[in-house]
Amino acid sequence: MDVNWYDAPSGGTLLDADTITYSTDVAGTYYAEAVSTQAFCPSTSRTPVTLQIDPLPNVNDEMISFCENEDVLLQAGVTGVSYQWSTGETTPEITVSQAGVYTVEVTDPRGCSNVKTVEVTQVDLPVIENIRTENGNIVVLTSAADDVEYSLDGVNFQNQSIFENVPGGLYAISVRGETSCSNVTQDFFHLVVPKFFTPNGDGINDIFEVQGISSLSNYEINLFDRYGKLIKNSSGEPLIWDGSYNAQLLPSGDYWYTVRIENQIYQGHVALVR
């Protein structure tokens, strides 16, 4: 006996012939007609076979980023099923600390299963390569390939790597990626030294003073003339110079300074302009 398959109880379209099985992925009712292989006589009626396609568990693939040196939680996102992760766990969620592609197969009580894929990428922390003082500004250089944010206090962040007209002092420079990964922080002493001063009594730029150093205790400042003669010195106290030496006004010109803060020495020159 052979079987012919139709889409209607009578007449209709022949879907398949001479086979006891019919394969399809479309739900509906199909009709089997038995045919005698000896007399080639079809049956007087067709047998209905209803195909019901149960939906698979609903899952959605994900792409997740996580910060360097941190863990990330992966969730199957569906309940009432059994779980089989590519890592071997059988729980609704797992914690991972490595980048990669993870999968979880979820199977419902009917035996229907689906697979969710989670692609996990690691966001590397930015690296502070250099911090420098430039014309009263603080300039921060990083090796980060993506956009980063910068802060002088770890609270207020900006997109620009240059902080303009910053008062002298000690700052905790913080840099973070745009994904708000943990901050990378580095202490930096911002030394602000005037390039010139004009001690003419008009109240504007009348003195030479190193800004921001008063918050420290272990430092020393020395001032020299162009011949290397020590003009003024201060250890642990602010140095204020009005352009005189032994109560005598010194001439216009370049004078040199060294600033020692603990084991680090800064040096440069300032122009006295009369």
TrEMBL record:
Domain Ig-like per the UniProt entry, residue ranges: 3-55
InterPro entries, per the entry: Ig-like_fold (IPR013783), Ig_7 (IPR044023), PKD_dom_sf (IPR035986), T9SS_type_B (IPR026341)
Database matches in Pfam families: CHU_C, Ig_7
Matching SUPFAM superfamilies: PKD domain
NCBIfam families: Bac_Flav_CTERM
UniProt name for this protein: T9SS type B sorting domain-containing protein
Species name: Muriicola soli
Species classification: Bacteria, Pseudomonadati, Bacteroidota, Flavobacteriia, Flavobacteriales
